[in-house]
Amino acid sequence: MIAQTGIPVGETMAGKGSLRYDNPLNLGAIGATGTLGANIMAREADLVIGIGTRYADFTTASKTAFQNPDVRFININIAEFDAYKHSGLPLTGDARETINRLADLLNGWTVKADYRARAARFNQDWDAEVERIYSLGNAPLPSQGEVIGAVNTFSDARDVVLCAAGSAPGDLHKLWRTRDPKGYHVEYGNSCMGYEIAGGLGAKMACPDREIYVVVGDGSYLMMSHEIITSIQERVKLTIILINNHGFGSIGALSRSLGSQGFGTRYLARNEQSEQLPTDEMPLNEAKKAYLPVDLAANARSLGAHVIEANSITDLQQALAAAKAQAKTTVITIETDRYVGVPGYESWWDVPIAAVSEMASVREARVAYEQARKKERYYL
Known about the structure:
- By secondary structure, this protein is α/β, with parallel strands linked by helices.
- It has helices spanning about 1-5, 35-45, 80-85, 95-105, 115-135, 145-155, 170-175, 195-205, 220-225, 225-235, 250-255, 285-290, 295-300, 315-325, 360-375, and strands at about 10, 25-30, 45-50, 70-75, 90, 160-165, 185, 210-215, 240-245, 305-310, 330-335.
- The strands form three sheets. Strands 7-6-8-9-11-10 form a six-stranded parallel sheet, with helices on both faces. Strands 3-4-5 form a three-stranded parallel sheet.
- Its EC number is 3.7.1.-.
């Protein structure tokens, strides 16, 4: 339908992979974890066709994504509850069949040539931004974006990346170059920490002819890593990329952005004199002295996995090749810089901030929050 009409496409977490990343009309991720082009064109759109979407909070950037005062929605969904959202015209039915009917009705109609060309430019510009992040060269520790880039570049087109919680799903939503409809498996409905390895086990059982790359942070790994044992027992081989930033990187970044200084989001011992937890703003050289004595590589070995410890992106590239040759589940550990994240692009997420606080940083964040909330719409 889009080839026929020129209508550009933005992808939700669940919809990513419906188009190849390099389709000129694929604007990529949309919403709070979206790309520049998708969010700009969503903001301006006067008609949005939602295919199977539930218009979740991230997808709509907390009801701020669609700003055209005359915007209308046509919602294709098998669930009437979702089809009626945003006061939309509900088309309750199978997505493929409904799209085919729409394509028939739109025969001979196309968007304007300059609109189609603009979408194609956004697609190209975004791929250049992905390449920039993949090639960042951050030191002394690589960024998470570089780690994702190494895995994406090494993987075959039919391989599957699987993730669930933390900052990695948002980064994958923006960055992963999906080449196969089943190549992107990210549980982000509930950001379910611990789903990753168990989910990877199920994905490999469903598609034994594909390599499954489980991307998991140290926080989620500590929630539920024991299904490694099951993968060994059942001879279901996974490649697990264990990203270690010594804490909860996602919540740390969110907390810092909201003025709360990342309280309690690093795995650091309390100060013996003050009995206070260090903030997330402690310099790396000081933080290393306070790291908790946890050896995740040794833990994975104790569960029966083959373990490779990577100290750089070059190490990671070599480790991925070695892991592919392995017959059993392999865990590749790598430390990343928790302060170098993938930025947001023309978007926002409504995270309430305390209205009363003794911290100046929180009070300042509250002022910005109240301003941003004014853009929220109810589409009634």
